[in-house]
Amino acid sequence: MSSPVKKIVLAYSGGLDTSVILRWLQETYRAEVVTFTADIGQGEEVEPARKKAETMGASQIFIEDLREEFVHDFVFPMFRANALYEGSYLLGTSIARPLIAKRQIEIAAITGADAVAHGATGKGNDQVRFELTYYALRPDIKVIAPWREWKLTSRTKLLEFAEQHQIPIAKDKRGEAPFSTDANLLHISAEGKVLEDPWHEPEEFVYSRTVAPEAAPDKPTYVEIEFQRGDPVAVDGEKLSPAALLTKLNALGGENGIGRLDLVENRYVGMKSRGVYETPGGTIWHAAHRAIESITLDREAMHLKDELMPRYASLVYYGYWFAPERHMLQAAIDMSQERVNGTVRLKLYKGSVRVVGRKSPDSLYSLAHVTFEEDQVYDQRDAAGFIKLNALRLRLAKAIKR
């Protein structure tokens, strides 16, 4: 196949799929391939990808630690929105893709590449997330999605291709993998194979970041999280960078069995899929953020924000991070966070997160108004007129009914 493509930037993990893709791109497009490997806290060494890419003839190799950027520029804004897709998914995979894709486009500019490639399949959401970001940031970029082009339609064919081309294969990859995983600093996901039947409970071996709630300590753990303008900045009084703070919360959540989710979700391409997620630190963070908002946000601002949240979450899930509507929503959300300051105390115990205290210098909570004791600030007789005015339309409607 002839193609005008001269240089391709490949999102490269060093695993079987992207290693096969690297060689396939070289052979199919007769082009230079630049590999890009991002460390976004997946919990595995990324440097081995360098040696593998060198062995396979990558023309340039980029390996970058993006953990701080990931949390500060992507996870922080998303958590200000309290974003949950379909009411429960904290969007761990979704939020990582625009960062990887953005950096690919930047590397394409640095290296003079005229194409980018990814390893997402034609059945999933990630192809959309990668490519919407590519086109949003560089409209003229050539996008190559091998899973939509090649004839390597099974794991067996991938392994055969790898062996024919002397591509190193980790021993644990030669058998049929029990499930597929994706990880970053926010979460780890598992899907496919043993998880495809949504009736069957996941085996314990599926989980890697959290202990089983039943095996968590019998004594609760208390933790305090400090917020400034809606973002967490300290844990138990210790100021931490964004990535270090999430790492700390992950450890606390993991050892207390917090953050497991078994979900059947609606993919953007139309099918339902079953995923098992672990988001220990994010689960604690989400609960704490809602708690600090509860005493610092005006009622109507909070309710409006809650109405916007599902739309925001869908935009992230579908891959529209760089779309104008996401930026518009973000501006409104960020404005709402100007006085979301203070500290939340939480109780972690056997898989549960309970808010047990909250305080803020910008608190709207007024003990003088809500006390059950005698007060001097609220005249209860005012409620009668308030209720009658709000009931007027109901009374008029009832009066004309036959």
CATH superfamily of the largest domain: Argininosuccinate synthetase, chain A, domain 2
* Rg calculated over all Cα atoms: 25 Å
Order of helices and strands: EHEHEHHEHEHEEEEEHEEHHHEEHH
Number of helical regions = 12
Low-confidence stretches: none
What is the rounded distance between the termini? 77 Å
Overall mean pLDDT: 94
CATH class of the largest domain: Alpha Beta
Helix/strand class: alpha/beta
Give the overall shape. elongated
Sheet having the most strands: 5 strands, parallel
Strand order across the largest sheet: 3-2-1-4-5
Domain count: 3
Strands, total number: 14
What fraction of the residues are assigned to beta strands by DSSP?
15-25%
State the helical fraction: 40-55%
Instruction: Tell me the CATH topology of the largest domain.
Output: Argininosuccinate synthetase, chain A, domain 2
Reported CATH architecture of the largest domain: Alpha-Beta Complex
Give an account of the 3D structure.
It is a single chain. With 402 residues, the protein is an alpha/beta fold. It folds into three domains: 7-66 and 93-177, Rossmann fold, CATH 3.40.50; 181-359, Argininosuccinate synthetase, chain A, domain 2 (Alpha-Beta Complex); 368-400. Helix content is 41%, strand content 19%. It has twelve helices and 14 strands. The protein has helices at 16-29, 48-55, 67-80, 92-111, 126-137, 155-164, 242-255, 280-296, 299-318, 324-336, 367-370, 382-400; strands at residues 7-11, 32-39, 60-65, 115-117, 142-144, 180-183, 188-191, 221-228, 231-235, 238-239, 260-266, 272-278, 342-349, 352-359. It has a five-stranded parallel sheet with strand order 3-2-1-4-5, with helices on both faces. A five-stranded antiparallel sheet has the order 10-9-8-13-14, with helices on one face. Helix 1 links the parallel strand 1 (7-11) and strand 2. Helix 1 (16-29) packs across helix 6 (155-164), helix 3 (67-80) crosses helix 7 and helix 9 packs antiparallel against helix 10.
